[in-house]
């Protein structure tokens, strides 16, 4: 159920670290490139053609109307609508302080220079269709964009065979404040957002998870537009001390395993007894899960247990793995926070299960996976802004420092750069 790994054995650790990184099938790259090229040249016609081919529905008009949104909102359980609104408030509270401010420096001789922080104008949000519709992901993607001040938030999501979008997704989009919604999914949706069609505007950045066709398309259009990250299957690493209830650790490991057969769940504990108790609990709880086939496939392939001799050692191992979610189910968890270097989001203490962060706590659940927490951060307000710098110089400053600029330009053989300073200085008398 959980494969035991000896973390002091370099080969076993290496295998654990590499176990899910896989090459992309070249045939998929060719197929997605072809879809992108056709959307680029044929626009809406190609979008409709691919929607018919892959989603089995022809749509003359693929804009979601206000009426469809209103009907969806009315159809959703009022308590769930309340939950969305309260979650929104919590997500806003956490994300508002992320707003970066610009600055300006004033120097001698009337020189000033500064940096502005500007929101992106248009952002495309991909919301997966398929079996698992996550309205919580709509909130997590849209709310930071709103706080950043993005002008136009455009959501794309595949239609079902009747040409409809899941009402819960539309309701979450209404709560979050999406500006427009289109019924299109897959690589054709990404291409439409990157190049624009008569119906869909070209955006500056595309965010949101999706299947392999969506991920490959995002990689291929990166550069023409920005993208957030390639969010892979979910991961959780639980560090359990001797005091934690085995049922807590087991439930939390299963909570991510139920997402995907490729999800990864790792338990690090201080004794064989604790590992055995958690494993026993996993078996018990698994039997009661509706998604038991997915969870057990995930645990079979990517479920691991490691025994260490201290919490500090557990954190060292976790830093090497750089998990998407790290739970510290230990006494006095905050004492260990300074030791954690690589983790997408950290959950501190026995009562802080990861699902709080998935839905309601306020932190973002769009997080780096597959070891990329070493260098990527979670989605946030900063994902939806850009920085722009400015500078003002005066004749006094150029008189004083012009020689240095000329000298540096000439050292690079760039006469033209030097000249731009010289022509000005020649006019100062
Ligand atoms: N990290 C997260 O927060 C998070 C949240 C939700 C979902 N996900 C992931 O997103 C993915 C959702 O996948 P999905 O398939 O259910 O929905 P999706 O919306 O990503 O993909 C559906 C689209 O794929 C396209 N497609 C399907 N088969 C194709 C084919 N053979 N060739 C070309 N295009 C094809 C279709 O156009 C269809 O509209 C899953 O991998 C899931 O784990 C991640
Ligand atoms: N845990 C997922 C990200 O890894 C996000 C999610 C959405 N709904 C439930 N969970
Ligand atoms: Zn989750």
What does this structure look like?
This protein is of the alpha/beta class and 429 residues long. Helices cover 45% and strands 16% of the residues. It is built from 16 helices and 14 strands. The strands form 3 sheets. It has a 6-stranded parallel β-sheet, sandwiched between helices. The chain has a 5-stranded parallel β-sheet with strand order 6-5-4-7-8, sandwiched between helices. The chain has a 3-stranded antiparallel β-sheet with strand order 2-3-14, with no helix packed on it. Helix 5 (78-95) packs across helix 7. The longest helix is centred in the first third of the chain and has 18 residues, at 78-95. It starts with a strand and ends with a helix. Residues 134, 136-137, 234, 324, 358, 365 line the site of L-histidinol.
């Amino acid at each position: 159920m959980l494969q035991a790994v000896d973390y002091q054995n370099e080969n076993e650790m290496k295998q654990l670290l590499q176990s899910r990184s896989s090459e992309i099938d070249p045939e998929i790259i060719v197929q997605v490139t072809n879809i992108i090229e056709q959307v680029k040249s044929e626009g809406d016609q190609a979008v409709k053609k691919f929607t018919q081919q892959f989603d089995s529905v022809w749509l003359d008009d693929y804009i979601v109307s206000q009426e469809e949104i209103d009907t969806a909102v009315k159809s959703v359980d009022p308590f769930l609508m309340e939950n969305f609104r309260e979650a929104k408030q919590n997500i806003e509270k956490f994300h508002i302080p992320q707003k970066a401010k610009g600055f300006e420096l004033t120097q001698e001789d009337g020189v000033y220079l500064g940096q502005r922080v500007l929101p992106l104008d248009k952002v495309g949000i991909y919301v997966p269709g398929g079996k698992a519709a996550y309205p919580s992901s709509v909130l997590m993607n849209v709310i930071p964009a709103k706080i950043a001040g993005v002008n136009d938030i455009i959501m794309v999501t595949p239609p079902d065979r009747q040409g409809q979008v899941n009402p819960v997704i539309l309701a979450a989009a209404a709560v979050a404040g999406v500006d427009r919604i289109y019924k299109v999914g897959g690589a054709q949706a990404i291409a439409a957002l990157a190049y624009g069609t008569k119906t869909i505007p070209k955006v500056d950045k595309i965010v949101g998870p999706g299947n392999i066709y969506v991920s490959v398309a995002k990689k291929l259009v990166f550069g023409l537009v920005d993208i957030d990250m390639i969010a892979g299957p979910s991961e959780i690493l639980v560090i359990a001390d001797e005091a934690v209830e085995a049922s807590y650790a087991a439930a939390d490991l299963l909570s991510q395993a139920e997402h995907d057969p490729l999800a990864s769940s790792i338990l690090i504990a201080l004794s064989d007894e604790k590992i055995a108790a958690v494993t026993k609990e996993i078996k018990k709880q698994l039997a009661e899960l509706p998604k038991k086939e997915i969870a057990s496939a995930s645990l079979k392939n990517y479920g691991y247990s490691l025994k260490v001799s201290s919490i500090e050692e557990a954190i060292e191992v976790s830093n090497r793995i750089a998990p998407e979610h790290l739970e510290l189910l230990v006494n006095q968890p905050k004492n260990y926070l300074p030791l954690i270097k690589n983790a997408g989001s950290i959950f501190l203490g026995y009562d802080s299960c990861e699902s709080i962060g998935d839905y309601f706590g306020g932190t973002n659940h769009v997080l780096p996976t597959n070891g990329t927490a070493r260098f990527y951060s979670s989605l946030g307000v900063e994902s939806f802004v850009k920085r722009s710098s400015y500078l003002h110089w005066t004749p006094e400053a150029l008189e004083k420092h012009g020689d240095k600029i000329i000298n540096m330009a000439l050292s690079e053989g760039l006469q033209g750069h030097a000249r731009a300073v010289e022509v000005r200085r020649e006019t100062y008398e």
